[in-house]
Amino acid sequence: MLRVTTSSLCACSRRLRLLGPPSASASTAAPPPKTPENQLTVRSLYQLSVDIRKVRKSKAWVLSEGSAYVRETAELLRDMGADATAIASILETHPEAVLCRPEEAAAQRDLWVSVCPNKRELMSMVEKFPASFFTLTHHGHQRANVLFLQSLGLGNRIIGKLMASAPQSFSRPVGLNKEVVHTLRETYLELGGDEGDLRVWLRKLLAQNPHILLRPAGAWRDSLGFLRERGFTTEELLGLVSSLRASVAELRPEAMRRALGYVEAALACSEDELKQIATRCPAVLHHSLPTLAARFQGLMDVGLSAQQVKESPNVLELTTPIVLYRIQKLASLGYDVRSGSLDVVAGTKKDFETSCGKLHLRQRRPMFNPVAPLRPAEE
Q: How much of the chain, in percent, has pLDDT values that exceed 70?
C-alpha cells in the first residue's frame, strides 16, 4: 500500500515538474518579434538628413511600412519652395507624409496653391501644420468647402489659414458647414443685424475661430434661447453676439447659468445689473466658473472691492498675473487702484500703455499754483 502511494506521488511530482507553473512559462516566453524596418525607407530619410532616432521614438511604425514615397514627397516639397532643412523638419515632425501617394499629394498641393499662391506663405503654413497638409482623406469635401467659403467672400489668405489650423472643418461634407452658416445668418438677422454687415461679421467670426463650423447648428439656438430666458433683449443679444464673435461658439447654457450665478452672488447685483455686466464684459459668459472665481479672488487678495469690480467688470477679462503687473506698474507711477477706478487697469495692452504714458507725464509736470505771488525779476 505504501509503495503504491509513494510511486503515485513520484509520478505526480514528475508531471508537475514537466508542466511547471503558468507564471513561470509566461515569464520566460519570448516577446513578440518586431516588424523589421524598411531599410530603403530608412536610407532615403537618412540621405535627407532626417533624424531617424526621432522618427523611431515618435512614429516607429512608419519605418516598417512596405510602401513609402520618400523621394517623391521630398521632391514635391522642394517644388513648393522648401529647402533641405525644411524638408527634414517636416518629415521628422510628420513622417507619415512619406506614405501618401504622389498623385494624391500633388492634388493636395494644387488645392493649397489655389488659396495661397505665395510660395513663402504656403511653405510657412506647411511647416507649422504638416499634418493638415498631408491629410489627404475626403479631398472632394475639401475642395467643395473651399469653393463654399470663397462664395461667402472670405479671402484666400483666411481660407488657407483655416485649412491649416482646422482641417476637420474641410474634411466633412460641405452640407454640414452650409447648415451651420445658414443658422448663423438666420440668428444674426433675427437679432436685427443688417444684411449688408452679415458677410463682414461672418468673415470675422470664421477668421477668429476656425473650429466654429464644427459646432452643431442647434447648439447656437440653445445658447441664445437661454439668454432670452434670462431677459436679454434682442438689441442686447445682437451686441453680445457681435462682441463675442468667435467666442460665441463656446457658449453653453449650463456653463452660462453657473457663471452668471457666481457673478450675481460675488458682486451682490440685481438681475438688471447682471445683464449690464454681461453686456459690458461678455467674457463672463464663456469663461469657466473656476476661471472666473480665480480671477475675482485674485482681485480681492490685492485689496480691491467687489464694488470696484462691479463698476469696471472688464477687469475680469484679464488674467491675474496681468492684473498684478498692471497694478504694480500704476503704483510706481503714483496711482493707487484701491482708491480709484479699475478702468485704467482694464483694456488692451495698448490702452494700458497709453494710460501709463499720461500718468508718467503728469508725474513729471511741475505743479503750478495760480494764487502764488510771482517773483519779481531781479535787477
A: 84
